[in-house]
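Hi there,

I know you've been waiting on this one. I reran it after we fixed the sequence typo, so this is the corrected version. Both the input and the resulting structure follow.
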Amino acid sequence: MQAAACYMVEPRLIHFYVSPGHNFFGRHGLAPGTHPAEERAEVVCAAGRGLVGDRFFAHEPGHKGQATFFSGEVFAGLCHEFGVQDRPPAVLRRNIITAGLDLDALIGTEFAVQGVRFLGLGECKPCHWMDRAFHPGAEAWLRGRGGLRAKILSDGTLALGPVRLEVRTAAGNTSSAT
């Protein structure tokens, strides 16, 4: 019997998406909108407001989805589960696609990525639109794996590539992971 391979993935930001308009939010009972999700090499984060150019930018004070994070590993699992290879992560309408980060561990914590500070507020729960945008059954499969909703605490720009994650502990100390 061959031993299982064990490896670590370097934390990375692998895709950024913003959309100028809503395709699903506020459209219950209606056909989805047709606003494209635009892929970017970098995104500008505005504290308390959101991602510049995104549909939720300055949506409402304290909006919990100023930035949404989603795991590239979860997306790969979703594609494998349903045998789907012709859709990009953009169809899930999340902003920041990551690799090598445990997003669930960031719920309830203050953290920084490339010097931009965020507060992890909770899971970005999947909705019924996932079945239409990706594949029937996607909403159920994504429960508990929908990503992270975050508030932006400082201004800055994120770029694709490796990241150094800094997490503020309950005692106010900062720990780093690369």
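Quick highlight: The longest strand covers residues 116-123.

Best,
R. S.
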